[in-house]
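Morning - S-adenosylmethionine inputs below, output right after.
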Amino acid sequence: MSLHSHWSTATDKIFIKKIYDNIGSYINQGTILDLGVEDYNFNCNEFIDNNSIEYWQLEPNRVCENNDGFFNCTVQECLEMYPGNENKFDSILDFGVLGWNGIRFSQKEQEKYVTTILKLLKPGGLYILHGDRVEVDMEYKINIDKFISPNFELVSVMGFKSHEIIECPRWGTVWDIRFFKKNIKI
Ligand SMILES: C[S@@+](CC[C@H](N)C(=O)[O-])C[C@H]1O[C@@H](n2cnc3c(N)ncnc32)[C@H](O)[C@@H]1O
């Protein structure tokens, strides 16, 4: 499939592509899980320029074949549908799923979602969360302090700050990208 144009035109996609370009040498050897697959995500396997990386994807609503493994389910139901994948991943890329206002996870769903992320990740694994700031209802705002911070540490990796803030110069949309490392002792 040809390269989708927004990888070089959309402010947040340009930033996210830099993560794909760098994560292969950062993880070096290991397994990555990418959450939420749209047609443009077909290109992501090629962005990770390292044959020693296994690149998995997860998506409930459609399939994508350009990966080394695929979970056809939501994050929340992943380990019930695909048991035995605990502590499998060195990194989980959460670009526009938990943090995207188009889905809206209740507090209860957020708890289940983050608990599953925690189980899928190896100790010391890297969880990268990218989201927008559109949500105002506290029931659906991502509760980082309650669900993520207790078991993760913000880290600066691959030349990125632990918390990057990017803004679209045209529309003023703001996105946060946070780099979380799962605590070793859990
Ligand atoms: C805005 S897209 C993000 C796609 C991609 N990760 C990116 O970088 O742009 C959100 C995706 O999450 C999927 N999705 C919706 N609910 C989900 C859930 N509970 N768990 C995992 N993925 C979900 C949607 O089907 C959609 O493909």
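Note: Helices lie at 6-9, 11-27, 44-47, 78-81, 107-120, 144-148.

O.
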